[in-house]
Amino acid sequence: MEKTYTNTFPLTMTSSEKQETICIFGTGDFGRSLGYKMLQCGYSVVFGSRNPQMSSLLPSGAEVLSYSEAAQKSDVVILTIHREHYGFLTELTEVLKEKVLVDVSNNLKINQYPESNAEYLAQLVPGAHVVKAFNTISAWALQSGAMDASRQVFVCGNDGKAKQRVVDIVRTLGLTPLDQGSLLAANEIENYPLQLFPMWRLPFYLSAALGLFFFSYCVLRDVIYPYINEKQDSTFRLAISIPNRVFPITALILLALVYFPGVIAAILQLYRGTKYRRFPAWLDHWMLCRKQLGLVALGFAFLHVIYTLVIPIRYYVRWRLRNITIAQIMDKKENPFSASSAWLSDSYVSLGILGFFLFVLLGITSLPSVSNTVNWREFRFVQSKLGYLTLILCTAHTLVYGGKRFLSPLSLRWGLPSAYVLALVIPCTVLVTKFILIMPCIDKTLTRIRQGWERNYKYSKSALNGRSDI
Ligand SMILES: Cc1cc2nc3c(=O)[nH]c(=O)nc-3n(C[C@H](O)[C@H](O)[C@H](O)COP(=O)(O)OP(=O)(O)OC[C@H]3O[C@@H](n4cnc5c(N)ncnc54)[C@H](O)[C@@H]3O)c2cc1C
Ligand SMILES: NC(=O)C1=CN([C@@H]2O[C@H](COP(=O)(O)OP(=O)(O)OC[C@H]3O[C@@H](n4cnc5c(N)ncnc54)[C@H](OP(=O)(O)O)[C@@H]3O)[C@@H](O)[C@H]2O)C=CC1
Ligand code: HEM
Ligand SMILES: [Fe+3]
């Protein structure tokens, strides 16, 4: 614990205690940055290099020696060398015996080698205690001092004492060590910085696919159809009208897809009569990226709202209103006020506004600073109950928008219904299924299953034993 404080007052420590010497192999970007940070935090640093005389740009105060000379100066050796160049270490096995050897390396691709770099290092230098650490911190972050990205350092190793020494160093440098267990965890730790938004990938591809499909569908109905049938140029619709169909439709379907896996999971649990069997991998993954799906949906809903706000200032809309008025004057025929149309129009807009309000509320509660202030039940209440209410309101908004035209043969073009009719299929399926699932008799069984009850205890036990098949 004391070390944490020495981080803030390195000079106090250096004047009263003997400086601990750390050896860093390699004088590249990462080695230099780490050495600089260590000197700042009160350590004495010795670099090991192929060309001790040639090394430039090294932080002042550090010593540079050959690899074998440097290793003799400390019992902690941090290896800031790419895995491909580890070969020369086999000649140093005697010097490195019983030393703590820290592997910081990353690869270019996930699972690039059959074994992790740290395990490979342990095979090369069997006498040393290999510890994996620091691979999630960048040279730039260490040097600039501004830790915009994560300060977490995953640490793993087979020797408890060696690991503890590295954990102490990490803490002294002002970083957060996270013990990940034995060297078997190195593979996962090495893959971690190579991942690029893994949970965002499915939402991204899904929204791209939905967007593309509905865009083509709307172009076919709203641009190509009028051109072929009436030789009318409607290409201007590509700018606002069609995006303002594609975006809300994508938002609505993605929102429904957030709540779909929960329904599928419930049906699966009811069918199996137990909660003790794993869900298929695709369902697991789908469940895990619901937050990201929801946030992408919120993004599209935002776009829809902004596009809707500009409707009154559009040239096409103003032109059409003027023409209708002029046509009425010329015909001397007044278009009577229709209370039912007014009701329909106001209702769908109002449902949209309320749905959007709850949608934003869901987004706000998913911010860590907010979710940390609510307890588990409150969070679930907002995410699950208010989430369903959001889906109901947005689906109703679209249904009422369709209003009287919904499924009317007049709105078919080449037999194709309006895009929003297709958009309603998944949301309505989710809502109807959920409605059936919350019927008291079904809900009671599901709740019992989720509390641990099993329909066929014997069967479930055997399923438990043979878990690998599920
Ligand atoms: C804008 C937006 C932001 C979002 N942000 C987040 C976020 O920050 N974090 C997040 O997690 N999700 C987020 N989501 C996704 C979504 O709101 C949640 O995943 C939501 O909890 C799903 O609700 P559900 O009713 O389908 O949950 P389900 O998983 O179906 O759960 C329903 C109920 O069943 C219970 N249950 C389910 N499975 C079991 C089981 N095996 N054993 C016992 N009980 C069980 C649960 O406790 C719950 O009460 C967000 C969505 C949107 C639209
Ligand atoms: N850069 C970063 O932000 C991060 C890097 N890492 C890891 O740190 C390690 C070093 O990265 P980085 O400093 O960027 O790399 P560099 O290429 O900048 O430095 C590597 C150093 O390795 C030494 N080395 C030893 N043998 C050889 C050899 N045969 N050929 C070339 N170099 C050799 C060299 O030092 P000398 O000439 O003194 O012998 C060289 O400077 C890598 O494993 C990387 O994955 C981890 C996290 C972040
Ligand atoms: C402030 C909130 C909202 C307002 C004011 C609003 C308003 C509108 C308007 C005016 C239309 C008709 C657009 C047109 O004539 O082309 C529309 C359509 C639609 N809205 Fe909203 N809306 C809101 C929020 C939402 C939300 C949150 C969703 C769902 C996620 C949604 C889904 C839809 C859908 C699917 C359509 C049909 C698109 C089409 O095929 O034309 N809306 N909305
Ligand atoms: Fe490099």
Automatic annotation (TrEMBL):
It comes from Dipodomys ordii (Ord's kangaroo rat). One of its GO terms (biological process) is protein homotrimerization. It is a multi-pass membrane protein. Residues 249-394 form the Ferric oxidoreductase domain. GO terms for cellular component: endosome membrane; nucleoplasm; plasma membrane. Keywords: Copper, Endosome, FAD, Flavoprotein, Heme, Ion transport, Iron, Iron transport, Membrane, Metal-binding, Oxidoreductase, Transmembrane, Transmembrane helix, Transport. The keyword Metal-binding applies. GO terms for molecular function: cupric reductase (NADH) activity; electron transfer activity; FAD binding; ferric-chelate reductase (NADPH) activity; heme binding; metal ion binding. It is found in: Endosome membrane. It catalyses: 2 Fe(2+) + NADP(+) + H(+) = 2 Fe(3+) + NADPH; 2 Cu(+) + NADP(+) + H(+) = 2 Cu(2+) + NADPH. Pfam families: F420_oxidored (PF03807), Ferric_reduct (PF01794). The lineage of its organism: Eukaryota, Metazoa, Chordata, Craniata, Vertebrata. InterPro entries: Fe3_Rdtase_TM_dom (IPR013130), NAD(P)-bd_dom_sf (IPR036291), P5C_Rdtase_cat_N (IPR028939), STEAP_metalloreductase (IPR051267). Belongs to the STEAP family. Its cofactor is heme b; FAD. SUPFAM superfamilies: NAD(P)-binding Rossmann-fold domains. This is Metalloreductase STEAP4 isoform X1. The chain crosses the membrane at residues 204-228, 248-271, 292-313, 347-365, 386-407, 419-442. Residues 21-107 form the Pyrroline-5-carboxylate reductase catalytic N-terminal domain.
